[in-house]
Design goal:
The chain is mainly α. The protein has 6 helices and no strands. It has a domain at 5-88 and 101-158: Up-down Bundle (Ferritin).
């Protein structure tokens, strides 16, 4: 069974990106100072390597899709919204540091950028795939990358390295609370508010129904009443 041209190119891009990520993460592990960061790098490296090997195997042998990948730990487990630190607290100025090695803060920033880019690349590739197994693997890859980027964000936020700017709480609620749930409106009320008279059919007849298959229409001509 052949691969389509689109998915062939998308898989090529994603495998190249995964290879690049593994090379970089291996380098980051050598420079990381904090034990928590080194453990995160090792855990995410195992995940990236596993997904890379599965996708490579599937391009050689279609049966590789039957080998399920172990799920990445649920990053949201145990995390409450109240734990996220919001607001700016005198963020330190930043500028390029070209000293030839990386500190933990730079490594975290690089990992976050990798995962965000990879999540977008995986989902974009999945939308171009005809093969159902490749599509599923890329969607799962997008979810994993999104979870891993959130794992990096949580550590950066806790360390004060990723500060989340906010707006006035009243402004945010006023802006978002203009949207109301559809369930709060009765269907008849919705039709009346949208300008559609009650009991009037779309084709102009009382209690009628619009039927897209009610017979041929002259191309480019006026609809017959």
């Amino acid at each position: 069974m052949p691969f389509g041209a689109h998915e062939t190119m998308e898989v090529h891009e994603i495998l190249s990106e995964k290879l690049n990520m593994m090379n970089h993460f291996s380098l980051y592990a050598q420079f990381a100072q904090a034990a928590e960061l080194r453990e995160m790098i090792e855990r995410q490296m195992q995940s990236v390597t596993g997904s890379y090997d599965q996708l490579v195997a599937y391009t050689h042998d279609y049966s590789a899709a039957n080998q399920p990948m172990p799920a990445y730990p649920d990053i949201r487990a145990g995390v409450q919204p109240q734990q996220i630190q919001y607001g700016l607290r005198n963020p330190a100025p930043v500028s390029p540091e070209l000293q030839g090695r990386m500190n933990d803060s730079q490594i975290l920033c690089a990992m976050l950028s990798f995962h965000k880019s990879s999540a977008k690349l995986h989902m974009q590739g999945a939308l171009e795939c005809a093969d159902p197994n490749v599509r599923h693997m890329l969607i799962q890859g997008a979810i994993t990358c999104a979870d891993q980027s959130y794992e990096v964000f949580l550590l950066m936020n806790r360390l004060g390295q990723y500060q989340v700017p906010t707006m006035n709480d009243h402004t945010a609620k006023t802006y978002l609370h203009t949207y109301q749930p559809m369930q709060s409106m009765q269907p008849m009320q919705h039709m009346q508010q949208s300008g559609q008279p009650s009991g009037m059919a779309f084709n102009g007849g009382p209690q009628g129904r619009m039927n897209p298959f009610d017979g041929p229409r002259p191309f480019g001509g006026m609809m017959q009443q």
